[in-house]
Amino acid sequence: MEQDASRGRSSRTVGPRHVVDLRLLRCFIAVADAGSVTAAAQQLYVSQPSLSRQLHRLEREIGLVLFRPVDGRLVLTSAGRELLPRARTLLATATDVQSFAGDIACGAITAVQVTASAVTAYDVLAPFIASAWRDLPPLAVRSAEAGQVYASLDADADLVVDDDIPPGHLAVSVVTRRTVYAFVPATHDLAANGSVTLTELVEHALILPNRRRHVRHIIDEATAHAGLVYRTAEEYDWPPVAMANAAAGRGVAVGCGHPAFGLVPVPVMTADGRMTAPLFASWLADHHAVATLVDLAASLSDYLISGPGSRPPDAGGTRMGGGASSPPTKS
């Protein structure tokens, strides 16, 4: 007897697992609210036999008796009373999901996940966010190692801002062209000049970006085009360390960005004018919120062009083909 009772309790406690059709829950709630299949069928615009079949199907699938007849009405059983609040919550959640999915289909995005190098995040994105430039969407910025930023678009990033050339399958906006500077201490001979030519620059001990960086290719190509060679040059991986060495008198750091350690930024000049390097914003072309990303790239471009250290308005923000511009090819 004890054994049989135990089996009975177990069979009632552990029921079959089913993925419940939301339409069946909707029928259940309608009957619970209306008190009869007839009234609920009228509200749902279905036939009474069809609604009865739906209720029986739900009871079979979940292994519960949900209603009992009392004086011509259907009254919830104790199991039905337990299930009803959860069913209401589930249907409300499903409605919210459907509504939110519709918003997403129209381009809604809760926050834009932006990936950049640590230096770009500090020099470019943090001031941009702090400026409250126009009506920006919420931006969540994270840093990545050089060479890894674009891979984040295949994970959870929406937008990448970087000075290296983006892969060809991405939509691209050139948000600005940044001046290439020679960073020197205030006591250095070059600090008193308004600019430095390549001819003058190559005579100094240089601290250059490593050859993986696009700005290094720009510097090398301009130097070779002018028929010049570096007298001596070392490479750096991280701009702050290059500037630290320049501040210590170990050479002239060359690159883009804001000066540190009291260094003076001296623009590098070529035969065509100031040497510049592009800054790219990139995203997946099939992103659901592409219009938001295009607008964000345009806002960043406008901010950088208007902000200190940027070039005049005709220098940046180049966009083509629905927000994408063609990046230069890698050397």
TrEMBL record:
InterPro entries cross-referenced by the UniProt entry: LysR_HTH_N, LysR_subst-bd, WH-like_DNA-bd_sf, WH_DNA-bd_sf
Protein's recorded name: Transcriptional regulator, LysR family
UniProt xrefs under SUPFAM superfamilies: Periplasmic binding protein-like II, Winged helix' DNA-binding domain
Membership in a protein family: Belongs to the LysR transcriptional regulatory family.
Molecular function, one GO term: DNA-binding transcription factor activity
Spans annotated as Disordered: 308-331
Keywords (A to Z) from UniProt: DNA-binding, Transcription, Transcription regulation
Domain HTH lysR-type: 20-77
GO cellular component terms given for this protein: protein-DNA complex
Organism: Nakamurella multipartita (strain ATCC 700099 / DSM 44233 / CIP 104796 / JCM 9543 / NBRC 105858 / Y-104) (Microsphaera multipartita)
